[in-house]
Amino acid sequence: MAYQLIALDVDGTLLSDDYVLTERTRNAVRAVHEQGGRIVLCTGRGPASAIPVLDELGLEGIVITHNGGATVRTPGLELLHQYAFPVAQIAEMIDYCRKHSVHFDVCAPFDMYVESWSEVEQAMYKKFFVTPHLVEDVTALEVSLVKFTLYSADPAVMDAVEKDWSLTGLYGELRMIRSGEHFIDVMHEQATKGNALRRLCAQLQVHPEHVLAIGNYYNDLEMLSFAGLGIAMANSPAGVLEQADDSTASNNEDGVAEALEKHILNG
């Protein structure tokens, strides 16, 4: 098999817009696995919401979570690597969110914390199989963090924050990325799906040319660039499609299955 490791984004890629894993896509991923391909989910989700997707595929193994912030092996939830930072580094951003009523959560590899949540936000977390810990003050937490996430049901709110923080550099030495229309993530400066995948491949002795990666958003760019073949979904923004090696159908049209059939199963 030309491609030994297949790196798959989850939301907007593997799953439909309704968060459904279709039978065709599941069968294609399973077929690649059964032919000896190593399937690695690479997602902005934490382990609690990523591993159920792996379970639905009927697989075990390694999952790159929190957009590269934490790499985890299942079963057993073994933390293989993390790009961590202290809560003190995001204190000014937390103050900003409180002042402007922007919802946020902070994540350790296996836990998520919020100071408040509305019904809309509770529904969002429920979709991702996550129940955050409700705390009075996240800055009092004595844990190492891997991701600080902002959320709004209104993309215009995220647009405004992204523009403001890009101008002011409020995130400092950390890294800010737009991980979806409704989300902004702030992480360790080296935390990317690409860096986590590069580190994993070095450990597994898999060369980049033997990696096939599929994604749909800006947080997938480093992963698509690292892989020997980086494929963008048809539902990707133009900036992602332009930088990919190839494209496939949308996530609502079994694009992952189409790509795996084209490049591996029927190749």
UniProtKB/TrEMBL annotation:
The keyword Hydrolase applies. SUPFAM superfamilies: HAD-like. Keywords: Hydrolase. PROSITE patterns: COF_1 (PS01228). The keyword Hydrolase applies. One of its GO terms (cellular component) is cytosol. This is Cof-type HAD-IIB family hydrolase. It comes from Paenibacillus lutrae. The lineage of its organism: Bacteria, Bacillati, Bacillota, Bacilli, Bacillales.
